[in-house]
Every structure is written in structure tokens, then in C-alpha cells.
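Team,

Forwarding the record for the chain on the shared tracking sheet. I've put the sequence and predicted structure together so nobody has to dig through attachments.
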Amino acid sequence: MITLMITNTTIDHGQAFDWGKTSRDYAKYRDIYPDIFYQKIVEQGLCLQGQNVLDLGTGTGVLPRNLYKYGAHFIGADISGNQIEEARRLSAAANMDIEYITASAEELDFPDESFDVVTACQCFLYFDKAIVLPKIHRILKKGGHFCILYVVWLPEEDVIASHSEELVLKHNPAWTGGGMKRHTLPHTIQWSEDLFELEKATTFDFNVPFTRESWHGRIKTCRGIGASPLSQEAIAAFEEEHILYLNKQPEIFDIKHSATILNLRRIDH
């Protein structure tokens, strides 16, 4: 397994993380979004038949694989080779013709106006906007769309999610991924400068069903545990305590989530 530790002073107090460390579990436990999530994307005319789509921070290819049935041609890119390896494995197993490349969003280089849509799900906060935004603008076709997607569970409204977060913080106090809330929908995007305009902002709630095992796997693959620099002993200690807590919960339960979709249109100069 190749590790690629990333540091960002605004995330986890500068503690390094690497999604590739948890890729096999990520592939098993992170493909959890319901159909409504993908329907909200295609209802806005995105990722449809005849469109070329670049998915940034694709991870194990969750977005391309779930939108594949709508007919777009996808390229998925991720900085982690381990994530891309899992994306290729899962796509091949499902007989899906999806292209994947190992590269950071900042390093990507495609010809001008190559894509109708660029997507970034759960990853935009990791990008260097000063580098990535002009690049996305350049590789999008005239009138093309940049779609930013966020999905969070709501710990203030869900006891199990809240307690799981408390255990992550107990074993990794540097983690800043907890305490998420619904996003307040913006009317404009200040950081887009003169490159993109907000065409539509959407937010909606949904429940995701989990078993004890699948919720434990979902939490284990978060940035605060599986992708963190914690030792195997520390991760095992978290797992033991988390499993003990979950064994007191119902075998199947829902976790309340909220999703936000920012559909930006390329400003043509």
C-alpha cells in the first residue's frame, strides 16, 4: 500500500491524513448515498447522456459509478493511487467503462474546453482554489458547469452520530471533521471571482440506513481514524470502544444526513 500523507493547516490542526490508508474499507463502507442524491444532480441537467464529466477527488469512484446509468462519459481523478485502484476494481466488477487517473486537482492537465461538467464531492475543501478554479474554468466548455457537493451527518439531531464523534475525538483530539450542520445556501459565491456564477443552490435532508457493522465501518474510514496518522494500537482502541457502544444499539438504524449541491456555471469571457 502506497501512502500519501497530506497536510493542511486549516484541517485537523495541520495533522496529516491519507485516504489511501483506508481504501479497502472506504470501498466497502462509503458508497452510501441514496438515489435521491443522484436524482437531484441529474434533475439539473448534469451528468447526462452525451456529456463529458470530470470527477475530482473521485475516491473509489462513488459518484461516477452511481451516475453511470444516466449515460455520461466519466473520468475520475484522485490524488491517492490506492483509491484509484479500488475505483477501477469496483467499476470493472460492475462492467462499467469509466476512466480513472491518479493526480491531484492542482496537477490535472486537459485541453481547453474538454468537459461539459466538472464535479467535486466531499473534496473541494482540500483544494487550492487559486490553482484549481482557473483550471476548471479553462477545461470546461462554454456554458459548462462546476458542481460542488457536500454530504454531512447531523450530530446535533442524531444520538448515535453524536456519540460516535465523541469517541473519535477521544482517540484523536486533532480531528476537526465533527459537529457539522446544514449548509446555509448562498446567493452568490464570493470566491468564484469572475470565473463562475451560481446557477442553483440546493439543500435537502435524508436518512441513511446502517447496520452496526456498516456504521462502524463508515466511522472508521473517516479522516479522524482510518485516514489519520494514528497508530494501529490507537485505532484498535477506538474500534473496541466504538463496537462496545454500538452493540447496545439496534442492529439496524437510520442516521440523518444533509446534502448541499452548488451548481456553478462557467462565465464565458
